[in-house]
Amino acid sequence: MNHARITYGLAHLYVLTLIGVLLGAFGIQFIFGEIPCPLCYLQRMGMALAAIGPCLVILHGVRVRFFGMTIVAAMLGASISTRQILLHIANTEDPGYGTPVMGLHLYTWAFIVFSTMIAVSGLHLWTLKEGESYRPTRLSTISKCVLGLFVLVLVANVISVFMEAGWHWFLPGNPTEYQLLD
């Protein structure tokens, strides 16, 4: 059984899952009108960075260093999520930022997602045999669609940050409006 070939297929699922998480954050943002704070955007960037490793697997084939990149990005994202969790548990009267989803705030879910990324990437590194690789001869339509959707979600995040910050260099700590629109 070629673990590298399975890993290549799972890279697609990995990217689609992260796209789903980012689209879920957009849903909370636009459906419920909750404007993301700077730490929320940093967590979104961490997820995008962590997805670059599996995107590179899709583009260039299975290589160990791509999973290393994902682990480092997920550790960065987990530290940002931890920072936000600690900000809200330090004050016992603080209800947290945003509406909870299934009982947890989005930054807590982000921590869970980042921790899962670290574990899954570690499992891939653990199960790949030395020298084992897989690279298709050309990108499939599914691969192109997954990568294209990832790029669209990245562009949407950049537009979202620009709409919120407008022409200012910094986002407000507790945003209440889209500065470009107001």
Largest pleated sheet: none
| Element string (H = helix, E = strand) | HHHHH
The coarse overall form would be globular
Classify the secondary structure makeup into a structural class: mainly alpha
Number of strands: 0
Helix fraction? 55-70%
Mean pLDDT: 86
What count of helical segments does DSSP give? 5
- Strand content range: under 5%
Low-pLDDT regions: none
Distance, first to last CA: 58 Å
What number of structural domains do the residues give? 1
Rg from C-alpha positions? 18 Å
What does this molecule look like?
The chain has 182 residues and is mainly α. The protein has one domain. The protein has five helices and no strands. The protein has helices at residues 3-31, 38-60, 64-89, 106-127, 141-165. α1 runs antiparallel to α2. The termini are far apart. The model has no long low-confidence stretch (mean pLDDT 86).
Q: Which key features would you list for this structure?
A:
182 residues; mainly alpha; 5 helices; globular
Task: Give a summary of the structure in a few sentences.
This protein is mainly α and 182 residues long.
Architecture blueprint of SSEs:
Layout: H1 3-31, H2 38-60, H3 64-89, H4 106-127, H5 141-165
Helix pairs in contact: 1-2, 1-5, 2-3, 2-4, 2-5, 3-4
